[in-house]
Description:
The chain is an alpha+beta fold. The chain has six helices and eight strands. The protein is 40% helix and 18% strand.
Amino acid sequence: xxxxxxxxxxxxxxxxxxxxxxxxxxxxxxxxxxxxxxxxxxxxxxxxxxxxxxxxxxxxxxxxxxxxxxxxxxxxxxxxxxxxxxxxxxxxxxxxxxxxxxxxxxxxxxxxxxxxxxxxxxxxxxxxxxxxxxxxxxxxxxxxxxxxxxxxxxxxxxxxxxxxxxxxxxxxxxxxxxxxxxxxxxxxxxxxxxxxxxxxxx
Length: 202
């Protein structure tokens, strides 16, 4: 002899689950430097470029911490000196009659490619994807909105790329640039560009 029990529930969350997941479908997160000077500087480092002067004969490249962030016009006592190699510099006389080099006069400066956005993405994307897969269940279950989901992933990836940029050491700064900036990391100067790495959702 057997007993049959029938159970019927009116709770059906399938429609809600499909609705929640549809809110994420087709949306994307972009990570990068999106604004003004940060975007311009990021593009230079990401792909490399050659900089040439537009209005003058030479670029004035700081070679001393005292010249960092300044222009040659900020100094009233500079004069040109030429090294044995033929390179020219703007210098001034210090106490004791020593010559202090402040700027290198360059006809052009080549910035090598130092990918940090693409390379940082490739380094950490699998980790972010795993996080995305775990969080997706919260979106499906209605415990996280689609915008919260996208912002969480954007914040995670941008943070990882910032770390990659801060740790970047190859190719390094030239010895003169390292002395001027106080670091061999080519992306570290004021830190504003790295801090400018952010995300946006579409």
